[in-house]
Design brief:
Elements: H1 3-14, H2 18-33, H3 39-52, H4 61-72, H5 78-90, E1 94-97, E2 100-103, H6 110-138, H7 144-155, H8 183-194, H9 199-214, E3 233-236, H10 238-245, H11 250-265, E4 269-273, H12 274-290, H13 299-306, H14 311-319, H15 321-327, E5 331-333, H16 346-355, H17 363-380, E6 393-397, H18 400-414, E7 422-424, H19 425-435, H20 443-455, H21 460-476, H22 481-489, H23 491-501, H24 510-595, H25 600-644
Parallel strand pairs: 3-4, 3-6, 4-5, 6-7
Antiparallel strand pairs: 1-2
């Protein structure tokens, strides 16, 4: 069966949505890359059956791109298709006549068909697992086709945003609106399977990596993938610095550190503008002053509460912010002065903020962002760059709206082909990882978990909506103000809110708010009981440890006392031995004097004095021995105390 006939038969038999076929194609794409081909060679394998389907008809990059999308549901820029056609022509697979390409030989796609069958089987298992999880965890009955759409939407999050000006954000097809409600369930599934790291998690991770691989095909110049970042300085925005300095969330912090390692491994430099460092300190000081305020609703405050960080912990990290950045390799650089010849129209930039839905609670925060973006243009000296690797300076942010605003402004300011001044941290991580996919970097996994965490937390807009509803309940007197104060401050409320609404504002009804309140109260009661149990267990453990210490001390005392007793006995034995030796020596002296030729006058003198000396020595020995017997216990106690210490 021909390739096109096989694909048509698959679509007819399974009634697959484009989203499902796109995921299948991504799985095949990654499977091919796992065999070690480069990005373009791997892509050629998928393009070959497409060009063969033209059956002698002339083909162009545009017509092949269209047919590629029909077969695989993946969008690839014409420029990438053109590179593939040139490579196939060099290999004599295609011929070029009068500006058009023609297929010069037949194509055997049997192995590709087998790869698609295998990918389809793996994906169907994933869909079934997802459907079962949604039913058991949330009581949701989601069809297989909707699950495929929801998962495709989830994977499409891992797109290359900063390249969106002149190519697609993602190879995946455009998806219908209204899919956001199911993203919480997908994220919950990912978090669940990530804990055991089994086959289900491997399937998810494989598709995410496949999409990241596919992003290489979106690069306007695939040769740039081979270049490093030695010409670029990446200036981190305040929100990107917080995970590195304060580390409120371990998953986000690990992803940030991984990104930093990737950049520096590619010889890129990282820096902070002086005004950004001032903003960082100001933000952190503001958080410190509001950490104990139950009505504080900022995202960072909530992150710190989730991490159970106290004001003292945060204060220490704030005080060491500059040292921490220096240790990570950042340089704090002066903010560039205003240069008229490089100055941008800041009013138009602010207009782009409004058009992209970027709103600021504080005017000063907007001024900082404007200052950062215009500083990038000053460093670039009004020169336009088409590739990230040559761009001299880029602002890195985790604020997607800020990145979109900068793209929109850059398109008006510099033209369609110019590279934006701002990139998202994820897009940068994706491109950096593509340059070293075979390295030991765990960036795809870090980004997958970080994205899952973000989807399982309420957005700022949603959280404010919830707090507004809580304020209305408080005014009505329906609940005790104390429980509502706890509701505002505890991470339990966020968790229960997302579980009951799946992250959808449309589902935030009075009955669900009541359910959130009741669940939080129940959780607090359970936690109180758990705390009591924990305290009891801790007390019992402490008592057991104290008993063990006492037993240990007693064993040490017994060993020390035994040692002291042995020493005392040895001393007593030695003294008795000395006494006996003295008596024996006295007898020997008397014997020697009595049998020798010493004059009788000396013998008489010695014999007269010796009994007195012997009597004195015997008395001394007996006295010492008697004293030793009386004080031996005291001696042994003192020796024991000296051995054991106080």
């Amino acid at each position: 069966m021909s390739w096109c006939a096989w694909m048509a038969n698959q679509r007819e038999e399974t009634h697959e949505f484009d989203a499902s076929r796109a995921l299948q194609s991504l799985a095949v794409l990654k499977s091919s890359l796992d065999f070690g081909r480069d990005y373009l060679d791997n892509f050629c394998k998928l393009v070959l059956p497409v060009v063969a389907s033209f059956d002698g008809e002339p083909l162009s990059s545009r017509s092949v791109a269209d047919e590629f999308f029909k077969n695989y549901s993946l969008r690839v820029p014409d420029k990438t298709i053109e590179l593939v056609l040139r490579r196939l022509a060099k290999r004599k697979v295609l011929t070029k006549q009068a500006g058009s390409y023609y297929c010069a030989e037949s194509v055997d796609a049997d192995d590709l068909q087998e790869m698609f069958r295998s990918a389809q089987g793996a994906n169907e298992t994933l869909y079934a697992n997802l459907m079962e999880f949604c039913q058991e965890r949330f009581g949701l009955s989601i069809s297989r086709d909707d699950i495929a759409l929801q998962f495709t939407k989830f994977v499409s999050r891992f797109g290359v945003d900063f390249l969106k000006n002149y190519i697609f954000r993602s190879t995946l097809p455009d998806l219908p609106d209204g899919l956001s409600d199911g993203q919480f369930a997908i994220a919950a599934y990912v978090r669940s399977v990530s804990e055991d790291g089994g086959d289900q998690y491997t399937s998810v991770m494989s598709l995410v990596q496949a999409h990241m691989y596919a992003n290489a095909l979106l690069c306007p110049d695939l040769e740039s993938i081979e270049k490093d970042f030695s010409k670029v300085t990446f200036y981190f925005d305040t929100p990107c610095l917080v995970p590195l300095v304060v580390q409120p969330d371990p998953i986000e912090s690990r992803a940030s550190n991984e990104l930093l390692a990737l950049i520096q491994g590619l010889r890129g430099k990282v820096a902070v503008f002086a005004h950004t460092f001032e903003e960082l300190n100001s933000v952190l000081q503001g958080v410190l002053s509001n950490l104990e305020n139950p009505r504080a609703e900022g995202a960072l405050v909530r992150d710190l509460r989730r991490a159970h960080l106290k004001a003292g912990d945060v204060a220490m990290r704030v005080a060491g912010a500059e040292q921490r950045l220096n240790e990570l390799g950042f340089s704090i650089q002066p903010t560039p002065e205003y240069v008229q010849s490089y100055q941008i129209d800041e009013s138009k930039l602010e207009a782009a903020f409004d058009e992209c839905g970027l709103h600021y609670k504080h005017e000063r925060a907007k001024d900082h962002d404007v200052n950062s973006i215009r500083s990038i243009y000053v460093i670039r000296k009004a020169k336009k760059y088409a590739r990230l690797e040559d761009s001299l300076a880029v602002l890195v942010t985790n604020n997607a709206a800020l990145a979109r605003s900068a793209q929109k402004f850059g398109r008006l300011h510099e033209g369609q082909e110019a590279l934006t001044s701002v990139v998202t941290d994820y897009a940068l991580a994706n491109v950096a990882w593509l340059k070293r996919p075979a390295s030991k970097s765990t960036m795809p996994e870090r980004e997958l978990l970080a994205a899952s965490v973000a989807l399982m937390e309420p957005s700022e807009k949603f959280w404010r909506h919830f707090l507004k509803s809580v304020d209305e309940i408080e005014r009505s007197g329906k609940y005790d103000p104390d429980i509502l104060a706890v509701l505002r401050a505890t991470p339990l409320a966020e968790r229960e809110l997302m579980e009951l609404t799946l992250g959808s504002e449309d589902l935030l009804t009075d009955s669900r708010i009541d359910a959130v309140v009741e669940r939080v109260k129940a959780r607090l009661r359970d936690e109180s009981a758990s705390i009591v149990d924990s305290e009891r267990i801790a007390r019992e453990r402490a008592e057991a440890e104290a008993d063990e210490l006492r037993l240990g001390r007693a064993r040490q005392e017994a060993r020390a006392a035994g040692f002291a007793s042995n020493i005392g006995g040895l001393i007593e034995f030695l003294i008795r031995g000395v006494h006996a030796a003295g008596v024996l020596a006295s007898g020997m002296v008397a014997l020697i004097f009595g049998s020798s030729g010493i004059p009788w006058t000396w013998q008489a003198m010695t014999l007269a004095l010796f009994p007195a000396l012997l009597t004195a020595l015997d008395a001394l020995g007996v006295g010492v021995i008697r004293h030793l017997k009386r004080s031996r216990r005291n001696f042994e106690q003192r020796l024991t105390t000296w051995i054991l210490g106080p």
